[in-house]
Design a protein that fits this description.
Length: 264
């Protein structure tokens, strides 16, 4: 079937055809086609990135422009700040970020560092809540920030706690990106590190994404023991050793995660 066909492709597995709106999926894919490497796109480029014809992509872009999510100079298209409403709707309506906020405040007060709640979305960690001392709030990750899981303490922790089958699939189908000289670049070494993290139940990541950054994370589970995210602290490397940082921060994170279990 060509991209010019008027017939919608088959719905994804697990969804009945009568319940699937192909146009909605394509409209979202157009929004997701923009990224830091492609902040502005022509209709042809958007079509190439979403497997649509230029004509179809242009129709979606013009519709999104009419809705205020996209702007254009007649040739190029780019996202507008209105797109942030989509993420803000999640942050305002989801229960988990609201429940965790006072507990993050407790972590921040007990460590004088920025505390986060993060979740996995595909191969990325998304930070959905944060709290920290005023002097540090201009540093670290903003709400909604997305970071490759392979280089963060919370991401590596959540990868390590996947089922054996899910972890094997990730290890055999992904390619590691190198950001610094400390980034784990070998899948064999990554496999060993994830096994170590799984065994100890917490994660430490240093200088893998930023040479001045250290992260420590513990799992956040609900009352049934299901993993729902990770509590983590991100701090500058400073003059504190890894051992001292872990000894100072890990007990606070663990205690807080345990205190939250019956509330989520």
């Amino acid at each position: 079937m060509s991209k010019d066909s008027n017939h919608d492709p088959a719905p994804p597995p697990g969804l009945d055809k009568r319940d699937w709106i192909a146009g909605l999926e394509r409209g979202v894919s157009i929004i997701e086609a923009f990224d830091d490497a492609n902040p502005r796109l022509t209709a042809s480029q958007a079509g190439q990135r979403t497997n649509m014809t230029r004509t179809a992509a242009r129709r979606y872009l013009l519709t999104l422009q009419h809705m205020g999510y996209v702007a254009s100079d007649g040739k190029l298209f780019w996202l507008t700040p209105r797109v942030l409403r989509l993420g803000q709707s999640y942050l305002e309506s989801a229960r988990l970020p609201r429940v965790v906020q006072p507990f993050l405040q407790r972590v921040a007060a007990g460590t004088n560092e920025i505390a986060y709640l993060s979740v996995m979305d595909g191969d990325e960690v998304v930070y959905i809540a944060r709290n920290g001392p005023n002097r540090s709030m201009s540093t670290g990750y903003v709400l909604g920030a997305r970071v490759p899981a392979q280089v963060t303490a919370s991401g590596m922790l959540m990868l390590a706690l996947r089922s054996d089958a899910e972890l094997d699939e990730w290890l055999t189908t992904r390619k590691l990106t190198v950001f610094t000289s400390h980034t784990i670049a070998s899948m064999e070494r990554m496999k060993l590190e994830l096994a170590r993290i799984r065994a100890q139940g917490w994660a430490l990541s240093e200088q893998q994404l930023d040479l001045n950054s250290r992260g420590i994370a513990v799992p956040l589970r609900d009352r049934h023991g299901t993993l729902v995210g990770a509590l983590n602290i991100t701090m500058p490397m400073g003059h504190e050793s890894s051992e001292d940082a872990v000894a100072r921060v890990l007990p606070v994170l663990r205690e807080t995660a345990q205190a939250m279990r019956n509330l989520i």
